[in-house]
Amino acid sequence: MKEKELVDNGKRKKIFRWVKVMVLIYCLIGIGFYYLQDLILFHPEPISSNTKYQFNVPFDEINIPYNKETVLNIVRFKTKDSVPKGVVLYFHGNRKNIGWYEKYSVNFTKNGYEVWMMDYPGFGKSKGKFKEQELYDYALQFYKLARSKFQPTQIVIYGKSFGTCLATELASIRDCKYLILEAPCYSMSSLVSHYMPIFPVSRMLHYQFPNNIYIKEVTAPILIMHGTSDGIIPFGNAKRLVPLLKPNDQFIPIDGGSHNDLSDFPQFHQALDSLLR
Question: What is the value of pTM for the model shown?
Fold first, then answer.
């Protein structure tokens, strides 16, 4: 009997040790994510302010001093038309800088639209730091700059990946011709929860970016395109936005498309061209 009790006690101690190890690992992962989430979520590529951009599309470049610490670098790609139809305010993803996203400008300039891209603080030539509300404020400043030249009926707000969070919030408070979202998430907390399902993500995140809330306030027509094989923002996560759309809004699945190759698919261009033409 004593021998059995010793064996049982040994098993319980072993189980308890494993539980302690698992709890420790859980805590370390949670603490690590909480303090390192900016490094995990954002991958900027800063460059010197003296760097000379060389693009195939005609462009000009401006810097907006937002405050003492923050300078926003904006590149404006021009159309060949003497009078542009309007402007696309392009909010790019969470990686690199305008130099990486410039190749997508032709998708809009060929249809007669200028394309304005803004680097977030810490990306490219833009300086400073940011929090969620500050990113929304920068987006609004970007819109106000466009309004000095274009009417709301000439302004298309476009977001790619992370940029959909800023685009959707902006379109929820300002008028525009269209809101176009490429590979959006339902919300940042829902996306991170997909990868960390056993953590209280909404309490841990510094950034919520609730597309699901802001999209309901958008009065402009909405076009969403998302790859069915997206390995970064799962297709199912974006599809959760569909019930929140207006009757004439569009959600277009790009069959076989992943996160960064939608521009390689004819269906992507057909949808974009039919809207912008």
Answer: 0.93
Question: What tokens does 60 get?
Answer: 């000009």
- In angstroms, rounded to a whole number, what is the distance separating the alpha carbons of residues 173 and 133? 14
User: Per the structure block, which two tokens stand in for 57?
Assistant: 């599309």
Number of Cα atoms under 13 Å in the Cβ half of residue 84: 23
Q: Is the separation of the CB atoms in 70 and 137 below 8 Å?
A: no
Phi, psi of 237 (to 5 degrees): -65, -45
- Tokens representing residue 62 in the block: 């401006």
CA dihedral 259, 257, 163, 235 (to 10 degrees): -90
User: What is the per-residue pLDDT across 187-240, written as a single tens digit (0 to 9) for each?
Assistant: 999 999 999 988 888 889 999 999 999 999 999 999 999 999 999 999 999 999
Burial 82-92 (b: 16+ CB within 10 A, else e): eebbbbbbbbb
Q: Which residues contact 84 (CB under 8 A, 6 or more apart)?
A: 78, 112, 113, 114
Give the position of tokens 């569009």: 250
d(C-alpha 85, C-alpha 143), whole Å: 17
CA-nearest of 139, 147, 75 to 104 is 75
Question: Tokens standing for 67?
Answer: 């405050």
The H helix count followed by the E strand count for the chain is: 10, 10
Write out the two tokens for 198: 């056993």
Q: How far apart are CA 267 and CA 23, in angstroms?
A: 47
